[in-house]
Amino acid sequence: MKAASREALATAQDTLDSLLKGADAVADSARTGLDLFEVVGVLDGNRELRVALNNTAASAEARKSLVNTLFGQKLSSQALRVVEEAAQLQWSSARDLVKGLVVLGRRALLRGAEAQGQLGMVEDELFRLSRILDREGELTQLLTDRSAESARKRGLLANVLYGKVTMFTEALALQAIDRPEQNPVDDIAGLASDAASLQGRTIAFVTTAVEMNESQQAELANKLGNIYGRAMSIHSEVDTSLLGGMTIRVGEEVIDGSTKGKIERLRTAMA
Known about the structure:
The protein is of the alpha+beta class. It has helices spanning 3-19, 25-44, 47-53, 60-71, 77-88, 94-115, 119-135, 137-143, 150-161, 167-176, 184-198, 214-228, 259-270, and strands spanning 202-208, 232-238, 246-250, 253-256. The termini are far apart.
């Protein structure tokens, strides 16, 4: 997103957060997130409408009125207020407006998980799902098939997830596969990062030769937190080909302390 869109998104996020506070935060957040994705679905399929809602030649009040005409009877009061706010702001493009609504819908669901006390669980579930999709190439191929109907793809993933994850994880994952311009593995992993960010944490992706227990993960998170100066979430997976040790990735930085890495560096030095 360009600067104007980033500024508009930040403003809309502040509005969303203020609307989702209170005794009914869980239900309000869930309904708002799902409603925003309904709006995204409508805008995705109608270019003229996207352009009209982002038409800066029209007054902000006129764009707000258009939102009410189209969605006023279909959305929760919180979702309607967020869409009104988004339509009145200045975005760099109509597509950025839609992307912004996607971000806002996701944030609403994550806020619901937070209010439910499940944000950490949702973060972990999203990461685990991204790893499953990364390993299961056939499933991922089916979910990314652009010729397949969205309802069919959502049904396939819903069957995989049913009863195994929280309702917030399921809702986030189902809408992620509706974004054909995104790789679902990266998109769902990005959602896990968003969940960590809302908790004031940065993710460290850790690959080990043997599985880490909770105590070891907590100790590693503490050490990395001291190194990077911020709280860390450990997302770990096992790769026996490492032979021993681990690799750690934080952002673009990679620390390779695996036995496999040490052997490869030794070979390079002796060549």
